[in-house]
Design goal:
Number of strands: 8
Shape: globular
Order of helices and strands: EEHHEHEHEEEE
Distance between the termini: 16 Å
Strand content: 35-45%
Strand order of the largest sheet: 4-3-8-7-6-5
Number of helices: 4
Helix content: 10-25%
Structural class: alpha+beta
Largest sheet: 6 strands, mixed
């Protein structure tokens, strides 16, 4: 995990962004995903953004597209993923899993002139086909303040698991 301080705000893109702003953004995303509102979820990304879920052997500093990943989506693949998940062709999620997300330990750090880093912990509970699973880990995001609010430039979910059970699915989005 990227080392991120316990800052209450960052100065970015000519404005102050508070930890409360970021927490509200992450809580909104959790709610949007739990309601299976993929158009609403996609609206939380800036065009050109990336979405990554590295493999369970990920180490800080590794490149998910060079060292392996469960998800390594550029903007076009992210659009295709959302389109597929909204269709009946997403057999792994038809009908949808029941999910409940918890986000905590939100930390901010400076980034560039127009973006900043955010780390947070997550637990995603998923019920499907009589099974109940918990996925835990942390987020390592790059956010951009816009006129319409915060947006993801990079959304990375890093699992804390040593491995995933056989048949485990990540189609519900970490």
């Amino acid at each position: 995990m990227t080392t991120i301080g316990n800052r209450s705000s960052v100065w970015c893109a000519g404005r102050t962004v508070t930890r409360q702003d970021v927490e509200d953004f992450l809580y909104t995303e959790a709610d949007v995903l739990d309601r299976w509102d993929y158009d609403g979820w996609l609206a939380l990304f800036e065009p050109g953004a990336r979405f990554e879920i590295p493999t369970t052997d990920y180490r800080p500093g590794w490149s998910p597209h060079e060292n392996g990943s469960f998800v390594d989506d550029d903007w076009d693949l992210l659009l295709a993923r959302v389109k597929r998940l909204k269709s009946r062709k997403a057999h792994a999620e038809n009908p949808h899993s029941r999910t409940h997300r918890l986000v905590s330990n939100v930390r901010l750090s400076d980034g560039t002139e127009d973006s900043f880093k955010v780390a947070a912990s997550f637990v995603v509970h998923r019920a499907r086909d009589g099974h109940f699973d918990a996925y835990v880990g942390w987020y390592d995001h790059l956010l951009v303040p816009t006129e319409d609010g915060l947006r993801f430039r990079l959304r990375r979910s890093v699992l804390g698991h040593e491995s995933l059970a056989a048949g485990a699915r990540l189609s519900f989005i970490l």
